[in-house]
Amino acid sequence: MDRAAEYTIEEDDDGVTARLTGDWTAESMGAMGLSLDEALETARRLTIDLRRIRRLDTAGAYAVIRAAKTLHAEGNIQARPTTRRLLDLVERAIETEPVPPKRPQGFYDLMDRLGRGIIDMAFDVFETMVFVGHLLFVTGRAIVDPRRIRWAAWVSVAERAGLDAIPIVATTSFFIGAVVALLGVNMLQQFGASVFAVELIGIAVMREFNIVITAVLLAGRSASAFAAEIGSMKMNQEIDAMQVMGVDPFEALVLPRFAAMLLTIPLLTFVATLAGLVGGLVVTWTVLDLGPAFFMQRMVENVGATQFWIGMSKAPVMAAVIAGIGCRQGLEVGGDVESLGRRVTAAVVQAIFAIILIDAVFALIYMQLDL
Questions:
Q1: Nearest of 253, 370, 351 to residue 310 by alpha carbon
Q2: Residues 326, 257: contact at Cβ < 8 Å?
Q3: pTM
Q4: Where exactly are the structural domains of the chain?
Q5: Which ranges of the chain does DSSP label H, i.e. alpha helix?
Q6: How far is 63 from 112, CA to CA, in rounded Å?
Q7: Are 211 and 314 in contact, with CB atoms under 8 Å apart?
Q8: 306 - beta bridge partners?
Q9: pLDDT (tens digit, 0 to 9) for every residue of the chain, 371 residues total?
Q10: Rounded CA gap, 279 and 175, in Å?
Q11: Long-range contacts of 341-350 (CB under 8 A, 24+ apart)
């Protein structure tokens, strides 16, 4: 039970002696520290007796030091060894000069941030290679021994990450196809070549927009979900528990998501292709009065299946990138919610950046192949 802080002051020929009793803590001291300071403000040859104090914390020690003015004189404090150590600790903290704020140093700070960024990028590349190696090892082990495959997890992830995205992918691709058709019709009508809008729609949708729109939507939808799911398990130490039980987290968490994306992105790309072509067909039918039969005939004769397969060839690479980035960022989550938010954001940003970069690389490769 706490006892209120109290003190008594005695004066004799040797000077003033202040005897403190009770609990000199932040909870029980109240305004007694200020009262002691005022009572001893003009005292000379001061002695403070702390031997009868029951409890003392840093707040009480600070009040004693403030009343004593200084602890450098050995004889003015009478206290037990443990109490004196606390007083010395608080006095050193009081005498410590505050660290001045660091001023920007221009070029030096720029080079420091640049160097740290390069080092962090190097570590990130190394961790990515470790992640890819572990994933390839787990994949090879599952191929050799199919009994290790968790089919229920694969089907569940494929449904949530892939099949449930069909409505949003189809709707977005439909409007993208319609917008491309409107732009093409308006531009080509100036040259009297509006009929070539069909070819423009077919090449743009089947070669580029189908896979890019699908991948970007899944980057925001599935990559963030993968990072959040695995990251929350990391925060709750569920992944540590899996490792203790002898379960490989890559086999139980990463591989099902990786395989589900490989299976569903080609399907979603096909759906996006159909929806984009339908959007273009609707515009050309209503604006140019080109019927569906004429639209499909020009699509088959002048566009062909090559453009479709070029777009579909990008799907497995996009699937691997989206699943890999989402799962890796989830495994990098720390023990706090702030880390989870940063990693989920990083998963979306990195996935979208990788999609645009990979699409540009594919465009250059097919350009060199004259496709």
A1: 370
A2: yes
A3: 0.67
A4: 6-95, 107-148, 152-368
A5: 32-39, 58-68, 81-95, 107-144, 151-161, 166-188, 197-203, 210-218, 224-235, 238-244, 249, 255-287, 292-298, 304-313, 315-331, 337-368
A6: 44
A7: yes
A8: none
A9: 557 778 787 777 667 778 888 887 878 777 777 777 777 766 667 778 788 888 888 888 888 887 776 544 444 777 788 888 888 888 888 777 776 666 656 777 788 888 888 998 888 888 888 888 888 888 888 888 888 888 888 888 888 887 888 899 999 999 998 998 888 888 887 777 778 888 888 888 888 888 999 999 998 888 888 888 888 888 888 888 888 888 888 888 888 888 888 889 999 999 999 999 999 888 888 888 878 888 888 888 888 788 888 888 999 999 989 988 888 888 888 877 888 888 889 889 989 999 999 999 998 998 888 87
A10: 6
A11: 343/227, 343/231, 344/224, 344/227, 344/228, 344/231, 346/227, 347/223, 347/224, 347/226, 347/227, 348/219, 348/220, 348/223, 348/224, 350/325
What CATH class has 6-95?
alpha beta
Closest to 250 in 3D by CA, of 136, 354, 169 = 136
> Which DSSP state fits 41?
T
Distance CA 176, CA 185 (A): 14
32 Cβ neighbours under 8 A, 6+ residues apart: 4, 5, 6, 7, 24, 63
Amino acid identity, residue 4?
A: A
